[in-house]
């Protein structure tokens, strides 16, 4: 199995490269869609056998039966959830990362990869406004990024409490404050950590604000909180919290200020919306998923800390076989998040940034915002549609006046069955709605118009 000299493996390598190249050249890509288990059983059957079916046969099976049963998240009319639209450069380099057998967890084993990843992280840190000593790591996704940041926050808060000689309720802070619009991974992280998530009411624009946060902290005891989570771009509506006022309250009480920008943090690259992020420069930690709005392939979340030493104290694993790493002054990415074994998942993002330059990224993000504004305006021009909230970023939530939940679902199912678009319903305050999440620069005004026409 472990040799390239075999002619069959050489032919397989050529076939895989050809398939990858052909897929990257598709414009547009096919939308495709899921099949039932029974349908896949009938088409694919048993793929794992004692003798193997052969690489070319397995590739043919994937190309003809399995891949078409997956929706293409980079299709320009895939506007559900948060799409993924990697650049061709990033997708191609993902092949290189897999072929290079790089371990990205330590400087000793992957210095070149870590060096490159850190430059990509530095670009993001500069957008946020973090100081030169800030740093972090690329992790699989926002869930692990948020969890890792909160673990560092709790460790820091409890260390500070112990050094201050604190006793009673503030000795072991156990609460996190966030709004109900915060990503579900915040609740998940609190569940994993056995922490209590305390909800904060939002204002009439759906934003977390400093005054509302202060009220909640005082009512529960600020000394019992180890973190506040604000969001720069909620998943459902794309709302950016009032980061400036929230950061002031966090500094007032000495509580860790974490900003979840998994989706919306990419908007920092766009001058037209940069003002929405005022105050983000005061965060203690921050995440953004390049696989969402920064055009990297799955899975890639950038996690940054204002003071990386605090995260290192919380996350460094200790074992005799790790002494050679822990005793060195090097930057070891696994010191900054949950987990030890680590793929150099930031490299495709780095390669695309290095290839195209940051100006191209700014222009691409601005292009999606331009299409989003067009979509909101176009919805407003149609008497059968209504925007539920004017967009902050690149998510537009709207209603088809008079439709029931069943009608939204029937419409969504029809779009996918016709291979026309993938737009699913959502809900807010008990009402069924739908939404466009526009993060693919290939999504055009014509795409938006065509989809809205189907709702007439």
From TrEMBL:
SUPFAM superfamilies: PLP-dependent transferases (SSF53383). This is Aspartate aminotransferase family protein. Its cofactor is pyridoxal 5'-phosphate. GO terms for molecular function: aromatic-L-amino-acid decarboxylase activity; pyridoxal phosphate binding; transaminase activity. The modification N6-(pyridoxal phosphate)lysine is found at residue 292. One of its GO terms (biological process) is amino acid metabolic process. Belongs to the group II decarboxylase family. It comes from Pedococcus bigeumensis. The keyword Lipid metabolism does not apply. Keywords: Aminotransferase, Decarboxylase, Lyase, Pyridoxal phosphate, Transferase. Pfam families: Pyridoxal_deC. It comes from the Bacteria. PANTHER family: GROUP II PYRIDOXAL-5-PHOSPHATE DECARBOXYLASE (PTHR11999), MIP05841P (PTHR11999:SF70). The keyword Transferase applies.
């Amino acid at each position: 199995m472990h040799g390239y000299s075999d002619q069959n493996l050489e032919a397989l390598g050529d076939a895989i490269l050809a398939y990858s190249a052909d897929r990257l050249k598709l414009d547009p890509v096919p939308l495709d869609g899921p099949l039932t288990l029974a349908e896949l059983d009938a088409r694919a059957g048993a793929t794992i056998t004692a003798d193997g079916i052969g690489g070319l046969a397995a590739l043919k099976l994937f190309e003809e039966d399995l891949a078409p049963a997956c929706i293409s998240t980079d299709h320009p009319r895939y506007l559900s959830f948060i799409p993924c639209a990697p650049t061709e450069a990033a997708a191609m380099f993902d092949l290189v990362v897999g072929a290079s057998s790089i371990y990205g967890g330590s400087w000793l084993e992957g210095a070149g990869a870590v060096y490159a990843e850190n430059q990509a992280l530095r670009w993001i840190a500069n957008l946020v406004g973090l100081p030169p000593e800030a740093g972090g790591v690329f992790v699989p996704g926002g869930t692990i990024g948020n969890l890792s940041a909160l673990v560092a926050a709790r460790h820091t808060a409890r260390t500070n409490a112990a050094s201050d000689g604190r006793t009673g309720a503030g000795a072991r802070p156990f609460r996190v404050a966030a709004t109900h619009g915060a990503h579900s991974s915040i609740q998940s992280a609190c569940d994993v950590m056995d922490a209590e998530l305390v909800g904060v009411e939002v204002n009439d624009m759906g934003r977390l604000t400093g005054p509302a946060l202060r009220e909640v902290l005082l009512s529960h005891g600020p000394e019992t909180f180890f973190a506040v989570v604000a969001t720069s771009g909620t998943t459902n509506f794309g709302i950016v919290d009032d980061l400036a006022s929230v950061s002031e309250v966090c500094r007032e009480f000495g509580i860790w200020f974490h900003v979840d920008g998994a989706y919306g943090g990419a908007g920092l690259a766009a001058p037209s919306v940069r003002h929405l992020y005022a105050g983000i420069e005061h965060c203690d930690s921050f995440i953004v998923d390049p696989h969402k709005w920064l055009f990297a392939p799955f899975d890639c979340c950038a996690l940054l800390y204002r003071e990386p030493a605090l995260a290192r104290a919380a996350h460094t694993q200790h074992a005799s076989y790790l002494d050679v790493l822990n005793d060195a002054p090097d930057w070891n990415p696994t010191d900054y998040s949950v987990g030890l074994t680590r793929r150099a998942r930031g490299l495709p993002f780095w390669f695309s940034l290095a290839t195209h330059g940051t100006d191209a990224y700014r222009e691409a993000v601005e292009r999606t915002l331009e299409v989003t504004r067009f979509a909101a305006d176009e919805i407003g021009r149609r008497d059968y549609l209504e925007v539920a909230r004017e967009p902050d970023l690149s998510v537009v939530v709207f209603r088809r006046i008079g439709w029931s939940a069943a009608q939204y679902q029937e419409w969504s199912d029809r779009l996918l069955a016709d291979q026309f678009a993938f737009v699913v319903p959502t809900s807010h305050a008990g009402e069924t709605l739908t939404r466009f999440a526009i993060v693919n620069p290939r999504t055009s005004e014509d795409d938006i118009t065509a989809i809205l026409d189907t709702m007439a």
